[in-house]
């Protein structure tokens, strides 16, 4: 009896200590940006709003399910804090910044881990550079009224929709318009609701839009931002290479999505920058944002793949086309080669201090020689090619950054170092429902341009060398329907119990030879997969179960392999 009493008392003493110790673990906070970078951004906002204004930025709400929590781009851009229901107040009168955090949520933290809260005030100031940290429970209308004082300053707050995971402003605006037109919905956006609250509670205060100021700041990327976009682009390129190698007739579009997603996640990406486009065949490719990815690849068809990860809140936008059979047909080669030539003409002329139109005009002159040496097989193909060069065909596409279709603009003035955007020449032949394109993401440098995915094969012969060579999908193929059905059979359960008792030597003797010969393994087998020995250039596989990790010397510099394969920060 006494022994039981001591055991109970020991648990009474130790349990609070265990809970307290666990709850006091350090809150998570990003490591890509130091407080100095946030302070530089705040100072630019102070300069824009002036000494008689205050900016208030609302963070993301708490997620309503088991989706990956992600802060809004604008809030993360200004402080790096991911805690939901947070606010940031930038006082132009004093040039001081107040970070408003919610109180500790023990229930949420017990399930998901520590996040910065109002109780972490000193730590939050150290990490972000904020001057003050306040609890949202104290941020009442009365407190804000006293904070504003008299005469009341103007309040700036973002009025454009805040981008979250895999979101871009254009799509958000379209979605909000759809809600507004719904007779049985019609609710305002979260941003409009916040603006309405400010105007209702402080009718004497003028409320202005902060979004144009934030857009202008975000349109030119810092070196740290560029490093993250570079890494996202590298992973996007490696994912496409792996998809090319896995391509064979009979493979499904979603399986190419899967191997690219594996490359993203195994290198530290947490989310995808946008839903993947893996379109095979003319009908699917013609739908430029095709997303179902359900069809089976067929001999003679092309594949268009456009996919990139979200790496540290930054993404890329990369696309290639390749033949399912591994060989371009004559018409495919004819049209894609022309798109490639135009892409080269544009990339060679991007530099700071000139306008987009100047570059397009220069490229148009250079394409005269290409037209002279190209024999088009059909008049409609030549008309499509000339239309591409005359109009640009979307070659200078959207900005890229925290969103795949990022905010800001780069086409209204001369190009500036630090501007990042996609180069996406698109050739359309509507008479045959043909849509062909390349897409890369570039940054304007002090002297020219850097193509983040210059290592990714673009020449048609190089693409053909990769297609169908076999990759992760062939190393670890999906379990067959017959195997899945057998999982529920009694004899399968018996076999599983027997397999659990088998020694490693038994399993090796039973299956290792087949794995070495076929270069794959079953997901239902406990034996280690055997990685094929790759000798030819162009291999960018990360073979499961093998120490061999080879990156093409031809397409990827040797020092890049170390950067990509390491677990460190972007260079």
Beta content comes to 5-15%
Number of helices: 21
Helix fraction? 40-55%
Give me the side-by-side strand order of the main sheet: 4-3-2-1-5-6
> What Rg is obtained from the alpha carbons, in whole angstroms?
28 Å
The average pLDDT score comes to 88
- First-last Cα distance: 63 Å
Main sheet specs: 6 strands, mixed
| Poorly predicted segments | 8-23, 507-517, 531-571
Which word captures the global form? globular
The total strand number stands at 17
Multimeric state: single chain
- Label the structural class: alpha+beta
Explain what the structure shows.
The protein has 571 residues and is α+β, with helices and mostly antiparallel strands. Helices cover 43% and strands 12% of the residues. The protein has helices at 2-23, 35-49, 73-79, 106-112, 121-128, 141-148, 169-181, 190-201, 211-218, 223-246, 253-266, 282-286, 330-347, 356-373, 379-391, 460-466, 472-475, 481-486, 490-501, 504-518, 558-565, and strands at residues 53-58, 87-91, 96-101, 132-135, 154-157, 207-209, 271-272, 277-280, 302-306, 309-310, 319-323, 396-399, 420-423, 426-429, 434-437, 440-444, 449-451. A six-stranded mixed sheet has the order 4-3-2-1-5-6, with helices on both faces. A four-stranded antiparallel sheet has the order 12-13-16-17, with helices on one face. A three-stranded antiparallel sheet has the order 8-9-11. A hairpin with a 4-residue loop joins strand 2 and strand 3. Helix 10 packs across helix 11, helix 13 packs antiparallel against helix 14 and helix 13 (330-347) runs parallel beside helix 15. The longest helix is centred in the middle third of the chain and has 24 residues, at 223-246. Residues 8-23, 507-517 and 531-571 have low confidence and may be disordered.
